[in-house]
Specification:
There is one protein chain. The protein is α/β, with parallel strands linked by helices and about 290 residues long. It has one domain: TIM Barrel. The chain is about 40% helix and about 15% strand. It contains 10 helices and 8 strands. Strands 1-2-3-4-5-6-7-8 form an 8-stranded parallel beta sheet. Helix 9 packs across helix 10. The relative contact order is 0.15. The model has no long low-confidence stretch (mean pLDDT about 95). Pfam families: TatD_DNase. InterPro entries: Metal_Hydrolase, TatD-like. This is TatD related DNase. Keywords: Metal-binding. GO terms for molecular function: hydrolase activity, acting on ester bonds; metal ion binding.
Length: about 290
């Protein structure tokens, strides 16, 4: 069976945390055998650390996500250093910059300051960093150039940047991780960008419980007890499953993503790269093992 590595997810998310044993069992049975679980603020680092201790398949990551920069305590950086030093298997993440709808509510100067501190820490500890970047690639590159290069690697998670920037990021040590969000990009643009990414730098992620891949309900792994799924199934029943188009009814906006759905992302990326999905699966797995083996 093909082995896959989920390079970025949030199993500590309160929406799915109570289901983790079942979620991991289903994902592992499907071939997803490693999960990089990313903390987002001081509030969840303890939970992430515990998950890493409880489940051998979980690689813990600790970081202050740009959305939560405004909620940081005065000791946040000391606490973060402590978590990283006492968890030798942990990497840094999720950190980054965000000028999207939600990111705009957080002071950008503060975001940059927190991001730089964490990047410098990752470099000093020789650990990879998982980076979130929304509408801020023009700000991200100069900071990475200033602090980098990053021999331990940086992971541009859910990468949706341009093809033109790929070589510059790659020179600094970047890996490019793809999630279900890639499926909302124009196909030609996504294909052009993917073709510029060095094969030894491609990662696949779920970003679960977010980034649900665009697919029909029948082909997706579902989170048990997800109310939005029950509503969609009810709608399908009402519209008559046999009626044309019932299979391709739009997925509910709030529907939760299962980490095992990286199989759908893998198939999509492999198709755009005109490569067998088994080959890409093997490649992305060995890339992830390389970046997460510090």
């Amino acid at each position: 069976m093909m082995k896959l590595f989920d390079a970025h997810c949030h199993l500590q998310d309160p929406r799915i945390f109570h289901q983790v044993p079942k979620i991991l069992e289903t994902a592992v049975d499907s071939g997803v055998v490693r999960f990089a679980v990313n903390g987002i603020s001081e509030k969840d680092w303890g939970v992430v650390k515990q998950m890493g201790e409880t489940y051998p398949s979980v690689i813990p990551n600790f970081g202050l996500h740009p959305w939560y920069v405004g909620e940081r305590s005065p000791e946040w950086l000391t606490t973060l250093k402590q978590y990283l030093k006492t968890t030798p298997s942990a990497s840094v993440g999720e950190i980054g910059l965000d000028k999207g709808t939600r990111g705009r509510t957080v002071d950008f100067t503060d975001q940059v300051e927190a991001f730089r501190f964490q990047l410098e820490l990752a470099k000093e500890l020789e650990r990879p960093a998982s980076i979130h970047c929304v509408r801020a690639f023009g700000d991200l590159l100069p900071i990475l150039k200033d602090i980098g290069p990053f021999p331990a690697g940086i992971i541009l998670h859910s990468y949706l940047g341009s093809a033109e920037m790929v070589p510059e990021f790659a020179r600094l040590g970047a890996y490019f991780s793809f999630s279900g969000y890639l499926m909302s990009m124009k196909e030609q643009k996504a294909k052009k960008m993917l073709k510029t990414v060095p094969l030894e730098r491609i990662l696949i992620e779920s970003d679960a419980p977010d980034a649900l891949p665009k697919s029909d309900l029948a082909s997706l792994f579902l989170i048990e007890g997800d109310d939005s799924v029950n509503e969609a199934l009810e709608r399908q029943r009402r519209e008559g499953t046999d009626s044309p188009g019932a299979e391709s009814l739009p997925l509910p906006k709030e529907m939760l993503n299962h980490p095992a759905n990286i199989h759908t992302v893998l198939a999509f990326v492999a198709n755009l790269l005109e490569m067998p999905k088994e080959q890409l699966g093997e490649l992305s797995y060995s890339n992830a093992i390389r970046v997460f083996s510090y």
